[in-house]
Write a structure and sequence with these properties.
single chain, mainly beta, Porin, SH3 type barrels, 5-stranded antiparallel β-sheet, 1 helix, 13 strands, 10% helix
């Protein structure tokens, strides 16, 4: 084997932090799209659902618009990061389905599509697919409920307390919580394998949010 499992894990961790640092270094402008087709770029310095929005352009000019005049707003500057929504995620977690997991997700408005898994031989191999609804998000913190399906294989103790290669094919429901990259996913599953239903699902780790 060209790289040991330990070296593979170290390379993955370094790659994820490298990608995260690049993403955090980007500074862009907010964009307001008006109903009349006009696009205004700059930094939003005031945002109020009742009173409207004030945006400051690169030249220093300030414009104020009522919410009724605005078709949509794209919050892209770090100044207004709390209003931006997660578009995708990349990270690592510990837990089901593979004990050590690589995580990728795509967010389409409030729809969450997520793939989790890895292969480390007898230590843990598996994949899990999530489809969920994001019911709350603000300032790099979101909550969602997901329906999941997965295949998992790892070494552990069965219901008779014997050390065996556990296999578990399952469907279930999980709760996702991500705040500033800290990721938590508890849930419950039913399925078939050499352990009995239901089986508790759990993941914890670092999952960076691209916004």
């Amino acid at each position: 084997m060209l790289f040991s499992i330990k070296n593979q894990i170290m390379l993955l961790v370094l790659f994820l932090f490298f990608v995260a640092n690049i993403a955090l270094s980007n500074e862009t402008e907010d964009i307001i799209y008006l109903n009349n087709g006009t696009k205004v770029t700059g930094k939003i310095i005031k945002y109020d659902l009742n009173n409207g929005v004030v945006i400051k352009t690169e030249k220093g000019t300030e414009f104020e618009y009522k919410m009724a005049e605005i078709e949509k707003i794209e919050f892209k500057s770090k100044t207004n990061n709390q209003y931006r929504k997660t578009k995708s995620e990349l990270g690592i977690t510990l837990g089901m389905p593979a004990n050590f997991n690589l995580v990728f997700s795509k967010h389409i408005d409030d729809l969450v599509l997520k793939a989790t898994g890895f292969s480390l031989g007898t230590f843990g191999t598996g994949i899990q697919i999530d489809v969920g609804y994001k019911f709350s998000e603000f300032d790099r913190t979101y909550h969602s409920l997901n329906v999941v399906g997965g295949i998992s294989s790892f070494s552990g103790t069965n219901n008779d307390k014997k050390w065996v290669n556990i296999k578990w094919n399952y469907v279930g429901i999980v709760y996702n919580f991500n705040t500033n990259g800290f990721f938590l996913q508890p849930g419950i599953s039913i399925g078939e394998g050499n352990i009995s239903s239901p089986v508790f699902l759990f993941q914890i780790g670092y999952v960076y949010q691209y916004r």
